[in-house]
Write the structure tokens for this entry.
Amino acid sequence: MRALVANMRTLVANARTLVANMRTVVANARTLVANMRTLVANTRAVEANTRTVVANARTLVANTRAVEANMRTGG
């Protein structure tokens, strides 16, 4: 009988630990989702910034060619 009571107490303690662990898992999953959303937003921002860099580089090339042409014609 004592062993049964001891086992039941252990079961209750394990159940409490399981509930605590499940709450931790849920909290970690929420944090993961939030971090993934942030990652997606940051990736989109990097993509937009990369497009701007490419556009600026093309403008720089065009301006450099225009300066070169002006220098050739004495302008």
User: Anything to note?
Assistant: The chain has a mean pLDDT of 98.
